[in-house]
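In this section we walk through a basic example: taking a raw amino acid sequence and producing a predicted 3D structure, encoded as discrete structure tokens. The instruction is simple. Fold the sequence below.
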Amino acid sequence: MSHLDDGPRSLKRRRETPSAVFRPEIDPSRPASLARQLYVALREAVADGRLEAGQRLPSTRLAAKEWTLSRGTIAEAYDILIAEGYAVARHGSGTYIMSEVPESVPKGGGGQVAAAPVTGRVLSDAARRVCTVGPSLEPQKLLPFVTGRMAHDERTAGLLNRIAGRHMNYAFEGYGDIQGEPGLRSAIAAHLAVSRGVRCTADQILITAGTQQALDLAFRILASPGDTVIVEDPCYPPARQCLALNGATIVGLPVDREGIMTERLVEGALRPPAFIYVTPSNQYPVGSVLSLPRRLELLSYARDHGCWIVEDDYDSEFRYDGHPIASLQGLDQAGRVLYTGTFSKALLPSLRIGYLVVPADLVPVFRAVRPALDRCPPTFQQRVIADFLNEGYFPAHLRRLRERLRVSRDLLAAMLRARVAEHLAVILPDQGINLTVRSTGTWSSDSAVSEAALKRGVVVMPLSRMNVASRDTSRLMLGFSGLSEHEADMGTRILADVFRRGAFVGGAARA
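The resulting token sequence is shown next.
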């Protein structure tokens, strides 16, 4: 008789525990699965104290009856609790809440987690270095003169969409080649040979996620933490941040109308660096072109001192006047130049396809290091671009785009000269998608002008943000890619009004 009494009494005791009378809030219309909702409800009940540590959870049979859920759903939720350390299964006894629940259990209140006091944050030295070399290029709204915008081309968009349809079958996809799709690499090698005089085979090319990944890969391989690296001053901010992240000691050389000033290198005033990072075809951000004599001096220096040159040719397709000077890589006889480019400006930034050309003897090294950072580039985008190049669409696309950009450049320059010539001297670029302006002497703080203009909805980027050692605060950069006539008209009128309303001297605007 006692044996028969024990069962019901035991069952009754279990039903009277908080876990038995607990009622989870489950909504079948939510996107989360029922099991996931039940798991979250149980976890929050533990955090709230509604379910205590060490309590036995209802059996799946009992819970199914009380909670109107399937036993499979309940078992799945219990399994998640067990896997994450909130519960333990005892053979022949049931599932119990752990006696010591993890301290990181989120608190209740509808899933909202109270903010913990931020103390004792530990960051790497590399992260701190990045934070001290200046701001990154943060995403900008589509405002007049913002850099990085691209003009939409209906014909090209239609072609890309049609080509993309060929490659949408993912059934047979796997990991691709470490260096990228052979078809795309061959197409790039052919394009670079004709357009930029680059001498390479497809085997020397690595496809990357834009120029930034190419630079990161090259910087990691060519220099060790603490090594000296020479850059242009001012310098492209993401490249400088990448160098800081990799622990380089950065030395800036000034830039003038003929590009980076190589005199200090030739005179031996500097210790030979691990490598020199340059944007010779269109110096970012000033816009000057490295002259042929300086190109030859740079190549001679690299050969004589055993250092590398990283050539960033990010927008070489957009040359408006005259013929482009051959790439450094094409002039290099000693195999000291690594060349990088991108399709972000010429096609679409969202494709995230760039490329890096390395000397043949370095290919095995890059193939060995690449998988540690990125197993392989995405094959879908590569195949689309490869077809676009191989089927001969790229030259016509570039001609259309180049003409549109030339019109935008000339329109912006004309409006600036008509409306703000008293304050800005326009430097018309022969290449690229941005132009720079210099103070005529009426203002001396580019950051103050930039802040005032941004409050009015216009983006003019202060070049002082990109200085390495220079103290020049008299230049601004304006983008004209994707710029409509309406935006150019509105933006220049606002900029003129900004100068009328304020005096920008010594880092602040004076009304």
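Looking at the output, two observations stand out. The first strand starts at residue 87 and ends at 90. The chain has three domains: 2-97, 127-133+154-394, 396-510. In the next section we compare this with other chains.
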